[in-house]
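User: Can you predict the 3D structure for this chain?
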Amino acid sequence: MKKIQLFIFAILLSSTSVFAQSDATKKADKHFAKFQFVDAIEAYNKLIEKGEGNAYIYSRLAEANYNIFSTVESEKWYAKALEAGASEPEMLFKYSEMLKANGKYEASNVQMDIFASMRPADDRAVMYKANPEYLSKILDKGKKFNVQSLDLNSKMSDFGGTLQDGKLYITSSRNASRKNYGWNEEPFLDIYEYTVAEDGSYQAENLLDGKINTKYHEGIVSFTPDGKTMFFSRESFFENIYEKDSVSNTKYSVLHLFKAKKGSNGFSEVEALPINSQNYSIKNPTISQDGSTIYFASDMPGGFGKFDIYKATLDANGNVGTPVNMGQKVNTEGQEMFPYVSSNNTLYFSSTGHLGLGGMDVFYTKEIDGKLAPIRNVGIPINSNGDDFAFRMNEETGEGFVSSNREGGKGSDDIYAIKKLQPLCDVLIVATIVDNKTKAPIAGASASLVDSKGNVLSTKTTNAEGKVEYIVECDTDTELQVTMQDYESNKLAIAGDDVEEVAVELALDPIEKIIEVEEVVLRPIYFDYDKSNITAKAAFELDNLVQVMNKYPDMVIYATSHTDIRASNKYNDALSDRRAKTTVQYIISKGIDATRISGAGKGERELAVDCGTNCTEEQHQLNRRSEFKILSGGPKK
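Assistant: Here is the predicted structure, written as structure tokens:
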């Protein structure tokens, strides 16, 4: 282990010696060492103008800009440093942070991939690899799936798509030996089985035998979790159940549900379910992932429309309980059919009653604590202006099937393989920004929505009504950060939810409100433990001070920085002094003359919370703060 450490140290020495400080950089390095980052940046830039730029100078510029949260410049110089040969893992990590801060998520991921490969055990690398959540944000809005027609589609009607034990089951009218059905002049529907090959293709088409398929219609199938029982629908003609029109002598059947047991020679022991009736149809069965519930569509009396979605209990012996209508939230006056319940208990179904793109669209909801979440349209390209139905999806892989009669298909209905690209559920956030005193809307404010990790998801400008809108994934915690000239910046935490729309209001106070007789009162400027660089949260608050000092050009500020009680007095004095100087440098970097702001560290001598040796993390953070005394100038009293 010691030999390895010495070897790594030697490599670091050899790599940094090429890009070390020199006589030319002494002045700039002195500024940097004193945390005079604005002056350091100016000095390093002059060296570059003279043609003396190298990886060392570029990296120093990157670090100086990083420390004052000048993200665009920092990103630029990190890129130059790496291009010039720098390769330290920490630099790569900081570079990825700056890319994220500038909204370049894909480029940030590239750097994080390199960082993770260099430091795979680093907690930041581990977390990144486990949850690269921003990838979905770069996908086209609205297109949440890839959709591709299956090669097995015929010129007839093909729909369904149920995978079980290495087999794919579909329903098709391709059997030319059947009589044609008058509705569409295609043969009666049968159930087919395919073997899923190692390459994922579907081979060895097999028409299930006569115990399952008859000369009448058979519909889509579903299985119990163990795969031993198959449920399917069949036309009641087979049972000699029908009604005959006395005038035209036309016979009308209904659809019934059946179950079959799997044996060594396939499925047999076909049995009609006791919930069947000669007076109405029951079709489109699907079994819940735990096998305890069967869902189906029916036009039985007491529904809300032509066909409704129902559910019933299913015990270990296959006994079916009393059907229960899924309610008016799911069912409409139109038709709701083809239910499917996925592994996370999301109910997908097709409907002509809910607002869609035309024909039947696929919708989804989820039952939580006995209540159904809002009904949502799955969107394009799952849905089209045709009929889209028989949706199936493995929630773990995001792969499945949907059937459709959309334009461009091979037959009257076709089966499409789907692959989910990004989360389905999203929420519209409508934010209104108002003046806290007059309650009038504020137009022209800059409003940024930030995720829980501090990444800016979107920045927009409020319209004449003071409004901005964002779309985020369901159950995503966010924070709204708003800035406006002559107003104190403000922010609002927005808890994640699964409702379709969240309306929030954020009030801004005039900037004068933060000016007191002897100080400018900002919200706490928090620093990370043992750190002195300006964070995004700190920059958001410090910009209020910049705005005040711009409004009152004679104002002179003295900034003090404080630590918690961890570490020694000597160490805390040094840490707080670095923080004070970094704070001052940030203000100067925003155009405030250096003669108007100074600062010093106070260590742990002036605690905000005197909690002794039993401080909580929150109390430690409250003690890590900055304060701003007015030495002269400001509003005239």
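The longest strand covers residues 426-435. The longest helix spans residues 569-589.
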